[in-house]
Structure formats: C-alpha cells, structure tokens
Amino acid sequence: MKSEIRHQPSRRTLLRLSLGLLAFRLCTPAWAQPGAAPLRVITLFQGATDSAVALDVTPCGIVDSWSEKPTYRYLRTALEHVPHVGLETQPSLEDIVLLKPDVIVASLFRHQRIAPLLKQIAPVVMLDEVSEFKETLLQMGVALHRQQMAVTLLQQWQRRVAQLRGQLQRAFAGHWPPTVAVLEIREDHVRSHLPASFAGSVLNELGFSWNAASQAASGASLKITSKESLPVVNADIFFVFMRADSQAVQQNYESLLRHPLWQQMRAPQRQQVWQVDGVPWSMSGGIMGANLMLNDIARLAAADSIS
Fold first, then answer.
1. By the 8 A CB rule, do 145 and 105 touch?
2. Most buried of 40, 75, 175, 298 (most Cβ within 10 A)?
3. Are residues 175 and 294 in the same domain?
4. What pLDDT, in 10s, does the model give residues 44-79?
C-alpha cells in the first residue's frame, strides 16, 4: 500500500488540540487542574522527555537515552539533575514508586504490558506512538496544563516549516520537489527510514518527495542487507547518519562510498549526500528534535551546490 504523504498536518493537529482542550475543561482530573502546584511527571519515552522540556517542565524522572547515554546531549543542560528510572523498554517500577509522581507519560507501543501496574502508581497518559511528536506535545500540553504553550509551539513550528519550504522551493527552482532518502548506517547493513518514520514525517511536511519503492514499503524503515539492493533507495538527496560512533560503522560507510552502485545513484553523482545527526533524526521523537532536523535541512537550502 502506498504511504500517504501529508504536507500540512499542522492544521489538523491544532484542531485536535482545540477538541482536547474542550474535553479537558469538561472533565479535568484533580491532578491536572489549572493553577495547581507543579506536577511531578515521569516520562517513559524519548519524545515525552523532549516534549516536557519544550513545555518548560522538568520531569522528576526519565528513562535512559538510546545513545549518548545517559541523556542526549541536546537535553543534558535541562535534565542534568533528573533521576533515571531505567530503560525505555524496561523501566524500573520500584524507582518510579520512590519518586512519587503525579502523572506518568508512557507509550502503548512500549508499555502496554505494564500499564496496569503503572496506573496503580499514578495516573497515566498513554500515547499510541513514540514518534508522533505533535500528538505527544498536544496530549502533554493538556495533561500538564501547558495548553497555550503547546499551541504556541505548534504555531511556531507551522510558520517555520512554511518558511523553510519556501526557501527550498526557491533553492531548487525547476527541480522541486526532489526525492529524498534517509539512510542510517549500521555495522552490517543500512536502514532506509521511510515516509512513515519520524524523520519522514518532517520531510513530508516540507514537501519533499520519495521514490516509488519507499512510498510502497510499509513500516518506518527498510533494512538493506546487500549492497546490490542499494538502487532501491536511489534519490536526488541522501540524508545520512551513523547508528553509532564506531570503527565498524565507519568502515561500512566507507565501503558504501566505494561501491559502484552507490557512485551511480543520483545523490552521490550530484554531490547531494548530507551527513546529519542521528539523534534528532531518528531517536529524539519530540518537537525539539524535529526543530534540530530543520536546522540541518536549512543548511541544504542555503547551500551553493544545489543543482
């Protein structure tokens, strides 16, 4: 099934936020009453932690980051003294109890099995997906009585996306929209992040296109184990990042660069291979990470080498 590519979901997001605010006013739990004391919130996935910081809320507990452990560098200043409660895939219930949270933000994808236990500790805001950063911000804005701040952040996002999309259209002129591929280099294979991924959702909003294979694939990423399969990701622009800072990953990337099939694809031939930071592009899951993505893409819009 062809993946749906949506260029302007922000209006729908703001509509959902309005409906959420209405529901919030009609039936607000005691722990989330506006004007109440600051909430002690524990965030159990990366996008929730990112969103809490964006909403000017310091969690009382967070889970370990996937890389740059224990906390992503872009969040370290804000979260320097915040206790950790284990892994995103296996949080410590004992540590959560000791921190006495008022609310826990979890993900159905990660925490459905332990949801009944979490609910015995504190009220739980359970998000469907870990990568739907706008929905995460929306629901956390309601739960943490930071609704207006969430609205403002989404409006700022929409304006920035529109401005950057215009810059890209002017930069690429008659070649707009180019096709893109987001390539994650691992030790023994390459993963291509698809339109349904976190990175893909941002690129969709900016108006980029995808090749037919990427649009037809399901899920968030496509595993490429053979270099002979590289043509499946052929695109005008490659955004590339390393899964880890290791010699094995670097060697795999260097072998890709030397491979004839890599050299025959459009992005390498046009010198449109852009190395980016994998943390915001694949692991952050929040609006702050998404804005860091826009920073990287803005470099492309400003580049003199676009052709």
1. no
2. 75
3. yes
4. 999 999 999 999 999 999 999 999 999 999 999 999
Separation CA 92–CA 70 (nearest Å)? 15
Comparing 24-38, 91-105, 145-159, the range with the smallest average pLDDT is: 24-38
The answer to whether residues 141 and 17 touch, using CB atoms and an 8 Å cutoff, is yes
For residues 203 and 70, membership in a common domain is answered with no
**Do both 89 and 49 map to the same domain?**
yes
Distance CA 90, CA 64 (A): 10
Q: Are 117 and 213 in a shared domain? A: no
Average pLDDT, the chain: 88
Domain total for the chain? 2
Q: Is 150 helix (H, G, I), strand (E, B) or coil?
A: helix
Q: Would you say how long the chain is, in residues?
A: 307
CA–CA gap between residue 239 and residue 180 (Å, rounded): 8
Structural domain ending residue among the three candidates 152, 187, 216: 152
**Considering Cα of 281, then 286, then 287, then 289, what sign does the dihedral take?**
negative
CA distances from 294 to 50, 124, 143, 184, 291 (A): 16, 31, 27, 18, 5
Query: Where are the extended beta strands (E) located within the chain?
Result: 41-43, 61-62, 103-107, 124-127, 180-185, 190-193, 221-224, 237-242, 273-275
Q: For residues 101-105, give the mean pLDDT.
A: 97
Give the domain range for residue 203: 167-302
Peptide bond into 177 cis (omega under 30): yes
Closest alpha carbon to 166 in 177, 155, 152, 182: 177
- Chosen domain end from 128, 152, 176: 152
Residues 188 and 279 in one domain: yes
**DSSP, res 10:** H
**CATH number of 100's domain:** 3.40.50.1980
| Residue of 130, 156, 136, 161 whose CA lies nearest to 17 | 136
- Domain check: are 251 and 118 in the same one? no
The residue whose two tokens read 């025959």 is 264
Distance CA 171, CA 177 (A): 11
